[in-house]
Amino acid sequence: MTIAGSIVREQLVKILASKHFARTTRLRRLLRFIVEQTLAGRTSELKEYSIAIAVFDKSDTFDPRLDAIVRVQAREMRSRLDAYYRDEGRRDEVIIRCSVGTYVPSFEQRIDEGHAQTMFWNARIDALQSLLVKKART
Fold it and tell me: Where would a tag sit more exposed on the chain, N or C end, judged by fewer CB atoms within 10 A?
């Protein structure tokens, strides 16, 4: 399921205003940058070097082998996202994740338990109706 960019941006604003991100300029910039780049279809540009220059104001001589700022900040960002979704965002319908090993976030729609049960029973009803129609034809 694809989530509209406007909905993802609303979720981003909510996360950035949370207690987990409100006072962290670097992490706010990092999360905003990777989300906006992804929504703009520029995921191929989400590399350690380009992030260091665009987000952390490193010079073009930046060497990721010598400076781990992007990796360190990304790890902290992931940790805070996890904390946000365990706390303030535990009921949010949109989840922004950034898996270890990548700087490209994913956007997921959370399905609550009631909705999941409704989907289950609707599928069961559809299957039974289909079975009854087949049986009626024979």
Answer: C
